[in-house]
Amino acid sequence: xxxxxxxxxxxxxxxxxxxxxxxxxxxxxxxxxxxxxxxxxxxxxxxxxxxxxxxxxxxxxxxxxxxxxxxxxxxxxxxxxxxxxxxxxxxxxxxxxxxxxxxxxxxxxxxxxxxxxxxxxxxxxxxxxxxxxxxxxxxxxxxxxxxxxxxxxxxxxxxxxxxxxxxxxxxxxxxxxxxxxxxxxxxxxxxxx
Length: 193
What we know:
Distance between the termini: 35 Å
């Protein structure tokens, strides 16, 4: 649970290629007809479901702001057409790097000319192969939108990235806002996307 609480807290939004955003939706749904939404109400112990209070507030605020910018109005659950929810998860990935260094005396094929130094695999000298294995965590933030009338999931967006530490509350708020903006960039879905 502690790892899950840290997932969104340290989910970084750098411009590097590790950021992966994806969407899925029901193409038979007319999204233009929806104008109101409410948050899913969890039954039972919510501490097993959402982040700590500060991060939960940041995520909900970012989603509320983004949906309002798209013309949706937050209302009570009985009056809402859509139900909104978010989830977080952390997956541990393994990266294996193997590299070989060639060194020693190589009179013909040394990178720096004849003599001692970094060698070449095609000439005399020694080789040293090293393998580095590192584990890293990838955090994922998922936003779900459900059609309240049918109770079916009609849209899902997610963003995954390598977890990096963010120290200040301002940085945490900024990366949550950016993450939600990227996730909801395809809501409502565009034709053919």
